[in-house]
Amino acid sequence: MAISERQRRCALIRRPDGSYRLNIEEAAVPKPAEHEVLVRVRAASLNRRDVYVLHGRYPMPPRPTLVPLSDGAGDVVSVGTAVTRFKAGDRVAAIFFQRWLSGRPDAETPSSALGGQLDGMLSEYVCLAEEGWVRVPDGYSCEEASTLPCAAVTAWNGLVTRGGMRAGDTVLILGTGGVSIFGVQFAAAAGARPIVISSSDEKLARARTLGAVTTINYTTTPEWSAAVRAATRGVGVHHVLEVGGTGTLPQSIASLAPGGHIALIGGLSGFGGDIPVMALLHANTTASGIYVGSRANFEAMNTFIGRHGIRPVIDRTYDLHETSLAYRRIESGEHLGKVVIKL
Fold it and tell me: Virtual CA dihedral for 29, 34, 37, 38, nearest 10 degrees?
């Protein structure tokens, strides 16, 4: 496969106020070192985190430039002389934390995040260590595979790895973004009962087609925790995918059944707030902070995806020169599922 001498990539250029501006630029195609894999990226997807990075609101050391986006997939072009995991032609996706392969994270894990501490995936060619890639599920397009590394792995860990979800459990899903929609799909495939809240009746209708058994409009039902309890005959839910933050956490905890688990994932309504420790203690509930996951988590999830035939929900697909539109789509909150950029 012939490779041109230059590649096109999207770069974030840091402004004096700490925010960034988007720029499309050219750079030399990297050459893989001994243990590296060079991939022709075909698609990348956005997460809410990418909007925070763009606006300088994400907790990371400032960088003068940054190739954005943690999530991307493509074809292996060439490999280093010592690579054993992949060969040219393999279809792969990058893992979010390049140095979190299995087990518990360590102190170095956060510094290996793509699209933050490290340059990310919005580039025609990306070269990473062979340990930082996984094979994509059979039958997936690169656009579909690009949606998995952050949102899908986060939902998987929140519900399965840390939550221990099983058939018959009830699961509260906040919203209909990337993590949330994967949560609905995973819960339904596992035989659990997803309950979804959103401000859009149209999105709630779509969630029902994906397996939601109960849907609640939180605009017309602002005390939605009471509605959740009513839908579970007063018991409450066994799991919550908590992506809202300060504005939703009290009601999420109020929705929990005794012995339930809340996965703390995002802060769409802001970070912080007080956790009612006595309420957690009294009901024997647990709360876990979920920051994506390891390569082993990703691979276990891919096995589940293949077994159950789960397909990602892609809201819209943009070309590279439309990157700013993709960011605006995420920032608007109008999307359902994932927003993808083709390269």
Answer: 10
Phi and psi torsions of 34, nearest 5°: -55, -40
Domain co-membership, 181 together with 257: yes
Q: Which domain holds residue 194?
A: 163-289
DSSP H or E segment with residue 286: strand 286-289
- 167 and 145 co-located in one domain: no
Residue 244 lies in a domain: yes
- pLDDT range class, residue 279, cuts 50, 70, 90: confident
Same domain, 168 and 233: yes
Q: Are residues 181 and 218 in the same domain?
A: yes
81: which 2 tokens?
Answer: 């002389």
What's the domain count of the chain? 2
Kind of pairing between the strands at 71-79 and 170-174:
unpaired
The b/e string for 95-105 (b: 16+ C-beta within 10 A; e otherwise) is bbbbbbeeeee
Among residues 14, 81, 27, the alpha carbon closest in space to that of 54 is found at: 14
155-195 residue pLDDT tens? 999 999 999 999 999 999 999 999 999 999 999 999 999 99
| Judgement on whether residues 230 and 319 belong to the same structural domain of the protein | no
Place of tokens 């994270």: 105
Phi and psi dihedrals of 97, rounded to 5?
A: -95, 110
